[in-house]
Fold this protein.
Amino acid sequence: MPSDEMWLRLRHLDLAYCGSSPAIEFRHIIHLKSDHPYSLIGASLLHSPVKSSSEILTLIQRMSSEPSQNGDEKPPQKPLYELLTHTLVDIYVGEENSHYPLHEKLLCYHSPFFASIFYNKSNSSSRTKEFGLPEVEDAAFALFVGWLYARALRYPDEENDIGPLLDLYFLATKLQIAALQTDIVDTVRAYYHNNETYPGLRRVQYVYANTDEDNVMREMMVGSVARYLTLSDSIPEHWANALKKNGQLSVDIIRSIQEWHLEARNVPDARDASVDRGRNGFKGAVGFSHVEGNSEMEDVKEESEEEEEEEKSHVNGNGVA
C-alpha cells in the first residue's frame, strides 16, 4: 500500500495541475531533486502522456523500491500530514498585502528564515503570527506556496516560463530554502538541455544582478554560456560587448572552462609552429576580430535574445553591464 504522504502528493498534483481532467503529462508535473524517485520518473518519461493518477502511483512505487543510484542515504523528509498542524500564520506579500494563511510548522520546517521569525519568542511576529514581505512579488510567492504544499514545480512549456522560476529562485534564497533552490536549478537546467538551447544574455544578466559569487544558478548559467561560446564559430556581438564591459563574467567563463579539465593533447598549442592556429577564419577573415558578430552555429540556439535592447541594458551591483 502507498504511504499517506504519497497519496497526499498525488492528490496535490491532481489539484494543482490536472484540474478536472485525469489526463496529464509528466512534463507538466515535476522536476525534483536528481536523487528523488519522482524526478527519475519525470526524466525517463518526460513527454509521455499518462492517463490517470493510478499510473503515476504505480511508477512511483516501482521507482521508490529501487536502490539509490548514487548510494547516498539522506535523512527522510517529514511526511506532509505531520506538518499540517492547527496553527496557521498570516503572511502578507507585495505592495497590495496579498494574504497567505499558511501552516506554521510546514513553513518553518522548510524555511529557516521563517523559523527564526515565528519560533523566536523575542520577536513580535512570534506572538501575532503575522509577517509582511512587501518587497516580494506576489507571483513568486504564489509559486512558492504551490511548491510548499506539493513539493513540485511545473516544467516550463516555453522559455518565457524561466523568468518566473528565476524569481522563485531568488525568493528561495531569501527564505533560505536549499531544497527549493536545488529543484529550480535542476528544472532550468533540464529545460535548456532537453530543448538543446542555451540561456540568453538577458537571463544571465538577471541572475548576476541577483546572486553572489559561487551561486549554483549563476555557475550553471555561466557554464552553459561557456559551452555555447566555445562551440560557436564566432562570438555574437551582444555577447562580445557584454564580455568587454564586465570582467567578472569573462573570468567566470574561463573558470568554467577550466573545470572541464581538458587534456593538454585536446587543446591547440599556439606555441607549436607546426599546428594550424586558426587565423584563417570566418569567410576568409584573418585574426581575432573575425570571431565577433558572425556566429553560425547550427542545430543549437541561444534563447530569448533581444540584442538591441540588451546592448542598451544596464544592470547594477554584480550584474553584467
The beta strands are 24-25, 49-50, 88-93, 98-103, 130-133, 197-198, 301-302. Confidence is low (pLDDT under 50) at residues 1-51, 63-71, 295-299, 306-318.
